[in-house]
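Continuing the batch. This is chain 6 of the set; chains 1 through 5 are on the previous pages. Same settings as before, nothing changed between runs. Recording input and output for traceability.
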Amino acid sequence: MVRLLAAGATDVGLWRTNNEDAYLAMPEAGLFALSDGMGGAAAGEIASGYFIETAQAIFSKPIPASEEMIHELVQKVFRCSNQRILEHIAQHPEDEGMGCTGDLLVFSENRYIVGHMGDSRVYLQRDGSLQQLTKDHSLVQLQVDRGMLTAEEARNHPRKNVILRAIGANPSGSCDILSGLALKHDIFLLCSDGLTDMADDSVIRAILASVGSIQYKTKSLIDAAIAAGGRDNVTVVLCEVEVEI
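Output for chain 6:
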């Protein structure tokens, strides 16, 4: 088993008037989630809210020990929130185009399981090395994969926020799932693109490696995004593996 320290925070940023991001941090339950809404004003907020509410509802009971069962529950979160958004659009045609990204992090025993869709991200910092666990479902990432763009070109590309897979715009609602062993002192970061568009990996790595509480590091990451321009809502959830039992 692992004991987890966690913190989460969100900021509207400097350019937006509303916050379409939403997050969940429940270290005692081993459950963390983050979503970035799209579709404009209330529609984006509703979409991201659906994902967070669905994650909390489906994982309301103790997390099972079977990793296979957890995988099924993670997929269920994405399918059900996808269906809720589609049903909302059917009832409110004016919200056509609404959707959200979704990242879900679940701990069971000494394992972690991640569900992912969109261009929000999950990172793992281990022994001072920062690894991006998820891959963006975006146009520029596809072009990077095909050798059409470099990573640096993608970072500054005018269409970098074009998403190819999103909750509410995916007929199957199926997400990427990955898993691994959680080790003592690992730090997991869930974040919206309001952070990664403003702060590169070297900045994130330095903050996560700095001295300070998990709350201080969460605030420092958001402050870094705001200081760099704060062009979008920015949301950060940090989870540190404190003790292996």
